[in-house]
């Protein structure tokens, strides 16, 4: 996958990096043996911004933006986020389902030719997570709204910093949309 041509990635990792002023994430290739490969992108979210926005860059110096996501509204409990290419072209979107998220965090995910719904895999852990500040498992499953087939999963690995394994069995899902949603799951839940 090159920076100018984004397509499908069946599996990758999202690793949070601890910094003082921003939330930073590395989007890392998953090798066939399950080990980490090269870094696809570096994502950065400014803390305490009026409008949630995350930009993905090709390099650590942040000289080449690749894609990103931004909230449509400044404050909204069921905010919608547009995922865009570096030139501003809309790739897709995601939106938190506020009512369902009271007990089990849930999102709508939309892209070219696909509409999916995702939520925390384990309802009991979802409820516990609301009352206990421990690094509990945080796994999301996204299913195609029309067929019920798996579209994407994000599974938190237990470590000192947040690390997720993202699996995308549906080849219609643009890598940029999957990466944006995976980072959004962490960044928007303030993990």
Task: Describe the structure in your own words.
InterPro entries: LOR. This is Scramblase. It comes from Mycetocola zhujimingii. The protein has 191 residues and is mainly β. It has one domain (11-187). Helices cover 13% and strands 44% of the residues. The protein has helices at 98-101, 123-129, 175-187; strands at residues 11-17, 22-30, 36-46, 53-57, 65-71, 80-85, 90-96, 106-111, 114-120, 139-144, 150-157, 163-167. It has a 12-stranded antiparallel beta barrel with strand order 1-2-3-4-5-6-7-8-9-10-11-12. Strand 8 and strand 9 (114-120) form a beta hairpin. The chain is globular.
Which short descriptors sum up this protein?
191 residues; mainly beta; twelve-stranded antiparallel beta barrel; 13% helix; 44% strand
Q: Which residue ranges are poorly predicted, with pLDDT under 50 across at least 5 consecutive positions?
A: 1-5
- Assign a percent range to the helix content: 10-25%
The biggest sheet, with number of strands, parallel, antiparallel or mixed sense and barrel status, is: 12 strands, antiparallel, barrel
Q: Quick one: overall form? A: globular
Mean pLDDT: 85
| SSE topology string | EEEEEEEHEEHEEEH
Give the strand tally.
Answer: 12
Strand order of the largest sheet: 1-2-3-4-5-6-7-8-9-10-11-12
Task: Report, as a whole number of angstroms, the end-to-end distance.
Answer: 29 Å
Protein name: Scramblase
InterPro entries: LOR (IPR007612)
Pfam families: LOR
